[in-house]
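Q: Convert this sequence to structure tokens.
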Amino acid sequence: MASSKPLAKFWEWGRNIICVGRNYAEHAKEMKNALPSEPLFFLKPSSAYVREGNPIIKPYYCNNLHHEVELGVVIGKRAHAVSQKAAMDCVAGYALCLDMTARDTQAECKKKGLPWTLAKGFNTSCPISDFVPKEKIPDPHKLQIWLKVNGELRQEGETSSMIFSIPYIISYISEIITLEEGDLILTGSPKGVSAVQEHDEIQAGINGVLSMQFKVAQQSRRS
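A:
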């Protein structure tokens, strides 16, 4: 797919990060949430991106930081109210992503009926792998994604278990928010989310495709 900008570095210029929640039944169950009838989604700012070699920063206000490993879909051309049939033509490639979540903060936001921005949108809340052109992944619904903390397997899931398929997600979102080249969609996390602490090492991967590694650090407040 021809692009005026380098999609291999979409995180440097892409504007939107759109995250789909509760897209794996077992994860919804472990979080004690009902299964959605339509995709549930929220946004992260582009400042949430972090690449290997830099740490994931646990926010000063968070006591319970969770990992969620997800397949990310990188948009390669503008998509407005696109059909499911045409949706995959808008995909440039993929990336492995983490949706880092301040779970205690999210619980408070839910209780008060507030947006999830503090829980989901903080700096470094979206660690990402290298870009993978879509030609290298013939069927994104036949992948196994996994995550380890300090060498211990925490998450493992098949993308075939998604409740809403990638074409459905793209079609649904594009009718509400026009998708632009370089935008990233996180497609939901399998079960096994759990807490990480300062100094923990997170490894995550797509079997047979790639892996990535990040360390967790603690944010210190300005005096």
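The first strand starts at residue 17 and ends at 21.
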